[in-house]
Amino acid sequence: MSERAVPFYCPYCGDEDLRPAEAAHGAWYCASCLRTFTLKMIGIGVPS
Fold first, then answer.
1. Beta strand extents in the chain (DSSP E only)
2. pTM for the whole structure
3. CA–CA separation, 37 and 48 (whole Å)
């Protein structure tokens, strides 16, 4: 398992031209819509 979760597409525009961003841990930059966003793992499993 890698340290960084890799998104397959931008959650805002759906484009696949993503690059890691230096803004924060887990940050990604979309070259299509020019947005920077972060990914965060919340958990695995069914909430109780």
1. 18-20, 27-30, 36-38
2. 0.73
3. 29
